[in-house]
């Protein structure tokens, strides 16, 4: 995962609830830290992380932009966001995220 400006907070559940992960400026390797403990598997075989909501932590004057991808390394279906997002899923189905690219904040 690579993000270019600002810091974001990912929440495990919609409405900014549950466990959180803080993303600082720069590149980050993101493993599914919310997965249930089990037999050790290779990181590339772990299930994708589910992001319920996200919020920009540091504000500036640029337009916010973060992309969530269904596949590692910025591949697969991309879902772009440009503001705080109270729920990333749709129709009650959470958004599975394997990689993230943060472009800018507010």
Automatic annotation (TrEMBL):
Keywords: Repeat. It comes from the Eukaryota. Residues 6-58 form the Beta/gamma crystallin 'Greek key' domain. Coiled coil: none annotated. SUPFAM superfamilies: gamma-Crystallin-like. Belongs to the beta/gamma-crystallin family. This is Beta/gamma crystallin 'Greek key' domain-containing protein. It comes from Ilyodon furcidens. The lineage of its organism: Eukaryota, Metazoa, Chordata, Craniata, Vertebrata.
């Amino acid at each position: 995962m690579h993000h270019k400006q600002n810091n974001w907070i990912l929440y495990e559940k919609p409405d900014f609830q549950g466990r959180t992960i803080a993303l600082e400026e720069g590149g980050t390797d993101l493993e599914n830290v919310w997965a249930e403990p089990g037999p050790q598997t290779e990181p590339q075989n772990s299930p994708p992380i589910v992001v319920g909501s996200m919020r920009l932590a540091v504000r500036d004057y640029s337009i916010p932009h973060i992309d969530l991808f269904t596949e590692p390394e910025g591949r697969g279906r991309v879902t772009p966001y440009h503001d705080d997002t109270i729920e990333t899923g749709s129709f009650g189905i959470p958004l599975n995220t394997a990689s993230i690219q943060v472009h800018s904040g507010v």
